[in-house]
Structure formats: structure tokens, C-alpha cells
Amino acid sequence: MAGKKKFVWGKVVATKIKGILSKAFVFVRNHVNPIKLAKKWWGIRGFKKWLLLVAILVVLGILTNILLSIINKGKPDLGKYKTVAVSRQDIQKVITKEGVLRFAGVVDYPVPTSSTVTEVWVKNGDQVKRGQKMLSLESNASPQEQADAWNAYAAAKSAYETVEIAKMTSQVNLEAARQAVLDVSQTRQNMEDRFNVGNRTNVSALRPDQKYTDNEIESVKSGETQARSSFTIAEREYKAAELRIQAAQAALNSSLWKYQLTHDVVITAPVSGYLTNLNLQKGESISSEDGILFRIVSSGDLIITLKASEAEVLQFQLGQESKYKTSVYPDTEFTGKVVSIDTIGTEIQKDSGTSIEYLVKIKPDYVDKKFLSPMTVDTDTVVEKKTGVLAVPNSAVNYASGKRTVTLVKNGRTEVRDVTLGIITDNGTEITSGVTEGDVVLVPKASKI
Q1: Taking 90 as the threshold, does the pLDDT of residue 343 lie above it?
Q2: Which is it for strands 273-276 and 292-297: parallel, antiparallel or unpaired?
């Protein structure tokens, strides 16, 4: 019975709506006659006629836009976008950097303050051995220059002793931090062992109820975290101290060398290697303005050095493949592998603030005689690669309010879909969730310049 009443009520409503629409049609037909309206408009005098026409056109334009927006709602604007199917691709992330290629074992020897060459026993291109006589110099240094050189050597020696003490101190701190980690780790392990057998007694608690409280449990865990952080800091300080020792040793050797050159001296080869950049003749006068006496290449190995930022250095790993080009062979691509990555960076002061640079070294797989040292090279290092992953063009991904989305096209309509990203490369972005293979996404068309 209720169903019958519902059917009757629906029939009545439909009849009433049909009647209203019929009356509306008759009204429009009898009163909205375009010819009559045009005649009435033409009969209006003066400015009002044209004002009315403008108003009508504006209303028609607004109604047209509203109608078009309703019709086209959810449809892609193919004038500004193109569609691309989500597909499986092999993608790789590449870091492009400018580097410097140079011989790994090059050592320069400075010119003394003022000297005269009294004998030369070698020439450019010779293979010299450590201890071999190379040339003799007669010093023209004044007593003041000798004193200055000695003071510089004494200062360098004092600086070396200071950093040596600092290194020993950092080693003591490192061992103390290591022991602290072992102690707190043992405390945490003892606590967990008791918990595993149902014993929650804290034997170190100074109160009647010796069961571990939540605060004590968190304190033990926090103590271990802090101890490990302190150990990491101490380890970094020890490594930094080692680097400072190396720098101080180099400064000490250089200052000693410069002091010795303020006196008459016979120079011998300090290392074995290939002699180059020796441009001296017997009887020639030289001074510090001449730069270096000579250069010995103790190793024929070439190394490419890059400067990486904090974000970049974390992506480099030992053994990664790298490709590079040189000005000698601009159309040839050579290969190499990452062999060294700095873990302690260098602070660089710039107008925009302080930044930190890390050195990354690449060993070339091939060495050509035409390679110069040093020489600028352009490198491309593959830091990550994946095969057969879902990927879309980079411009298909939208970033807003902390979300990553793509715009799908389904049945002629658009749909915004949240996605999770994998690696982002120059050629595409990996999508790990949110879309499936074959889905169609919108991609902005490249603007024409």
C-alpha cells in the first residue's frame, strides 16, 4: 500500500513539473519574441539604446562562460597540456660536476729568496732517483732574510707541536667516548635481559620500590643515544686532528726547505720520479718571484677531483661509474670510478654565507699522453639507477601543501591523484605508488619562445 502511494505521489509531482515547463514555454513564445524585442530596442532613443545592448552582450557572455565551464568541467585543456601514459622505464640519477684532472704524485719545490745557480746536473724529462744531485745554489739572502726564514720555520715547528698535542688529546677523548658507549650499551642490555625474563627490578634504584619507571627506561635509552652521538663527534674531531697534523707537517717541511735555501746548498731529489718544469741555466740568478725551482711527478696516475655539496656528497659511493670529457678530445667520452670521498668537509666563506665543500676523487680508466695536468674536465657520475620502474615526465608531478600529485585523464575527465615518488632524474620521476602502468597523465606543453 505504501509503495502504491509513493508511486502516485511521484506521478503527481511529475505532472506538476511538466505543467510548469509548458507554461514557461508558452510565456517565452508569447512574450520573448526576438523580432518584437529588436523593434522595441530600436525604438529606444539616445544613449540608453547602446547601454542596453552592451548590458545584454555582457550578460550573454557571462552565461556562455558559465555554460561552457559546466560542459567542460573536468575535461583537460589540450591547448596547454598533452597526455602521456605511465610506463615502465630504466632510469638513472646523474650528478654533473666540473672537476680538475691532475697527476696524483706532483710535488712543487719553491724558489729561495735570492740565489745564483752554480751547477745543474739534470734536465727536463729525466727520471731522477731519490737522493740524486740535481743542482747547486749560492745564496744571496741577507742576514734579515735568513732570520725571517728561521722565524717562519720555528713558528711552523711550534704549530706542528700544538696540533700534535691536540691530536693526542682528541685520541684520549675518543677512547673515553668509546668506553662510555660500551658502558651505557651494557646497562641497556642488562635492563632488556631482565625484562625478557619478566624481571623489572632496577637494582640501582635508591627507593623502596625498585621497579623501573617509564622515566628510568627512557633515561637509559637516551643515555645510550647521547653516548653514541658524543662518540661520533669525538671520532670526527680525531680525524680532523689527523688532517691538521698532515697540513702542519707540510708547512713545517716547506718552511725548513725555505730556510735551508737561504744558505748555499746542493739540492737533491727528495723523491723518485719524472722531472719537469726545470728552466734554469748555470750562472742564472733566481728569486722567489720565479715561482718554483722544478716539479717532480712521482706517480703517473691521474686523478680527477670534484667539489661536492653536503646534499651531493651523500649520494656518492665508492666504485660508482663516472664519465668525463676533456678539451683535448671534446667529442670523446672517457670513463672512471669513484675512489675517494671526503667525510670531513671544508667551510667556504661566500657573500651569501658559509657553505661546506667535500672532495670526491675519480680515477680514470684510461690515461692518454696528451692529457695535461692540471686540466678542467666535465664529469657525469651515475649515483643511482633502477630498471623497469613506473615513471612519468618530471613536469607531470605537482608539488603543493606538502603533497605530490599527478593529474590523471579517465573517460575524458581529469582526476588529481596523490603519489609517492622514488628517484628523480633529469629524464623522469619514479612513481612508487598512486598510479598503475598505462594510466594517462597530463603534462604541460613546452612554452614557445
Answers
A1: no
A2: antiparallel
Residue 373 per-residue DSSP state: S
Domains of the chain in start order, with CATH, are: 2-71 (no CATH), 81-92+387-444 (2.40.420.20), 95-100+301-385 (2.40.30.170), 107-297 (1.10.287)
Whole-angstrom distance, CA of residue 185 vs CA of residue 183: 5
6: pLDDT strictly greater than 50: no
What confidence category does residue 367 fall into, taking pLDDT thresholds of 50, 70 and 90?
A: confident
Residue 402 or 341, more confident: 341
What residue has cell string 545584454?
56
**Quick one: which H or E segment has residue 91?**
strand 87-103
Q: Which residues, in sequence order, are CB contacts of 390 under 8 Å at separation 6+?
A: 86, 87, 88, 89, 430, 431, 432, 435, 436, 437
* CA proximity to 139, closest of 262, 266, 54, 258: 262
Residues 40/45/46/52 CA torsion (nearest 10 deg): -20
Smallest CA-to-CA distance from 398 within 376, 379, 415, 377 is with 415
